[in-house]
Every structure is written in C-alpha cells, then in structure tokens.
Design brief:
By secondary structure, the protein is mostly beta strands. The protein has one helix and 17 strands. The protein starts with a strand and ends in a 9-residue tail after the last strand.
Length: 274
Amino acid sequence: MMISTRPRRAFWIVSAASALAFAATGLATCADQPALSPVAGFGAAPQLPAPEKSLVPTVNIAPAKGWVRGAKPVAAPGFSVSQFADDLVHPRWLYFLPNGDVLVAETNAPPKDANSLRAMVMKQVMKRAGAAVPSPNRITLLRDADRYGVAETRSVFLDGLNSPFGMALVGGAPYVADTDALLRFPYADGDTRITAKATKLLDLPAGPINHHWTKNLVASRDAAKLYVSVGSDSNVGENGIENETGRAAIREIDVATGGTRIFASGLRNPVDMG
C-alpha cells in the first residue's frame, strides 16, 4: 500500500505488502569535496567524507510532488493498481481490522515553539517536503464492503486525539498511541465511529521538544503484551541527556495487569516493529 505525496493524499492498493512513501530531507556534502563511490563507505575499512563545519549547512529538500489526476504507480507483472481512497489529510499510518476495514491515522507533529531561528528553518524545510500541515488529530475508517478495491464508505472513527500514530486491536478493543499517551477505547465489530471516552493506560514521553513524536504500537502474537516505540528527543543528544529519559526505546505493556518495562533501549527512532 502506498501513500502519494500531495498535501491531500490518496493511497493505492498495490499488493499484500505495505509500504509508506514519505518525503525526506538529506544533508548534501559541499561541492568542493571529491565525490566518493557509493560503495566506498562499506566494508572493513570504509572511506568517509572529511567532517565539515559551516555557519549554514547545505540542505537538499525532496519537494512533495503529487500524482497527476488519473496517474497510477506502475505495478509489477501480474499485479494491477487501483485507487482505494483519496483526499486524506497527511495520512501517516495504516491498520487493517479483521473485518477488512482500514484505519488511517491522519496526523502530524504537535505544535512546537516556532520562535527560534532553528524552528523557523525547520518549518520551511517541512513545508517544502509537504509536511507542514496542522495535525488533523483523527483516525479515519475506510470500508470496501463489496471488495472491489474502492472504499465506498468513509467515516471519522476517532477524533480529538493528540497526534495519533500507532493502532492495534487487542481483545476486541482498539488501542491508540497518541504522542503522549497509550489509550484504549470500547468497540464492537463493525463500528464506524467511536465517541466514548478513552481509558488511558500509560503516559508516554512527550514534552515541549518531542523531537521524534510518532509513537507506534504492535501486539504480541498471543495478544498478552503491547509494544510501544518511543523515539529519541534529539539526533545526537544535543538537547541534553536528561531529556532522553524513557526515550529511544521500545516499552512493553502487560495487557492484563498494566505492568510496563523497557523492552529494548538505545534505539534512536524505532518506528516500525514486527
């Protein structure tokens, strides 16, 4: 499943495998450095570019260019592509319910202080990459009842959330990982809308910096444990190690007791888990 990169996005059914296409940014080396072979950085004695210091770094932004109306990805031989849904606002993660419904987290980073020079530059970078829209803070349900490959039903499954990302159905209840909390909601199979208040199981590290804000969520095969990913609050600890408490880690939650522990640590931004 792919997500296109126009500001109001469509996603496409491609195959059973899922992938998310995101706009990315990259740091470019200065023009006066000799170019290295792509394989030079591998092996027992990798060649790396010399460190560079500059007042203003060179940043190459991948601009967001949406699909031309009617255009489709080119499928591998034996496969076909059809548009499943469109006009979604910044979709970031998908979850498939057992009945075939598709949940889409329409979400973005929570508001941050944009008064610093760094924040203003980052805002422009994100804008060029198509990622500067306010967070819709909702999960949308898409239903293809006739299984013809087009979602003919769309509804707001959950709203009023706080930068939601990870989703999981465990024991008949949907769990949602907001940027600052793990939530559980009441649910009956086939529901298209949940208005009941959530039960908060766990506070998650957030705060004013919240550098890696996406909190993903998966369940163990026996549905006894939940695993929540919490990215670091920095790239290289530049915000102080005290801001990394409980972060750069995967947290395990016992569904029956609510007990929790750090399952794995030292992981900069472990968004996807399996």
